[in-house]
Amino acid sequence: MALVCLTDFEEYAKEHLSKATWDYYAAGADECCTRDDNLLAYKRIRLRPRILRDVSVSDPRTTVQGTEISFPVGIAPTAFHCLAWHEGEVATARATEAVNTCYITSTYSTCSVEEIVAAAPNGFRWFQLYVYRDRKLSEQIVQRVEALGYKALVLTVDVPYTGKRRNDIRNQFKLPPHLKVKNLDGVQVTESTGSEEYGIPSNTLDPSISWKDIYWLQSLTRLPIIIKGILTKEDAELAVEHGVQGIIVSNHGGRQLDGGPATIDVLSEIVETVQGRIEVYLDGGIRTGSDVLKALALGAKCVFIGRPAVWGLAYKGEEGVREVLQILNDEFRLSMALSGCRNVAEINRNLIQFAKL
């Protein structure tokens, strides 16, 4: 049977991955309300298609931070790709290079940043960063990825502590012994309690991180800094004031604070606050091309997919990730055309009608 939509890949992955691995990727925090609402929120939004607009030619290209990508969907940072496919992040990097879109490499990769760059030397990549209690460790990683040609730093700001993911606790989830967090390999993480959480010593992340650390990060690098994990207009305004170059509206796939909003539901207030001063992106809940269209209509410059990329890996490695991206590209172009849009510049708020509750 051909896999024709992203949920087909989800079903395949659920059948073929081990229970502990599936549960790890699927997990939300606590009761998973926010995880599930990320998807349901799109179904509450209706489109207002325009007709007789000559959509014989369509162009889904856009730019992010000045770099052209083939369509406005990139790969969000997700951990441990080798759990889904033996080549792991190397396969993800090759797929995104082939499709010509942006791949945000996770700190928690099971391939090193060097291996990823070697596998896809012409790929367009950003690097997702956490701030550690040991700041020297963060500094070393920033220097490594800047030297390797990564084009931006994506600072994840919604994990002062890790959310409570019940199935991971039940399964006593641990990385298998043959895998490790390669980017931290051989690095002594100080102040550890000796226990491990998601492949690195617990207490590695710094819960004291604050807005002043944005200035510290800017002092280390010339790369653009994008903050991932903003859900309010107040924090969006602070991000602009602190001179960052972009925001990813994100609730960490519903894996951190349960009971927070779906990302698509807060996108408008953030876009209105930012007023074009910096680019706004979004992740969480994107499963179809029309979801992409809705997010762009509400002001996102680009969206990023997390779990669906992992499902593609589980299906067929590099080829599977390419298929997932190609399906989204095809669906997005079709939704654009059926709504009367010939290019991304024609996608705007007039396309959106919120469903009557």
Automatic annotation (TrEMBL):
Catalytic activity: 2-hydroxyoctanoate + O2 = 2-oxooctanoate + H2O2; a (2S)-2-hydroxycarboxylate + O2 = a 2-oxocarboxylate + H2O2
One Gene Ontology MF term: FMN binding
EC number: 1.1.3.15
Cellular component GO terms, alphabetical: peroxisomal matrix
Swiss-Prot/TrEMBL keywords: Flavoprotein, FMN, Oxidoreductase
Listed name of the protein: (S)-2-hydroxy-acid oxidase
Catalytic residue positions: H252
UniProt similarity note: Belongs to the FMN-dependent alpha-hydroxy acid dehydrogenase family.
Cofactors that this protein relies on: FMN
Cross-referenced PROSITE patterns: FMN_HYDROXY_ACID_DH_1, FMN_HYDROXY_ACID_DH_2
GO BP annotations listed: fatty acid alpha-oxidation
Protein origin, superkingdom: Eukaryota
Pfam families named in the record: FMN_dh
The FMN hydroxy acid dehydrogenase domain, residue ranges: 1-357
Binding site for FMN: 77-79, 106, 128, 130, 156, 228, 250, 283-287, 306-307
Positions with a binding annotation for glyoxylate: Y24, R165, H252, R255
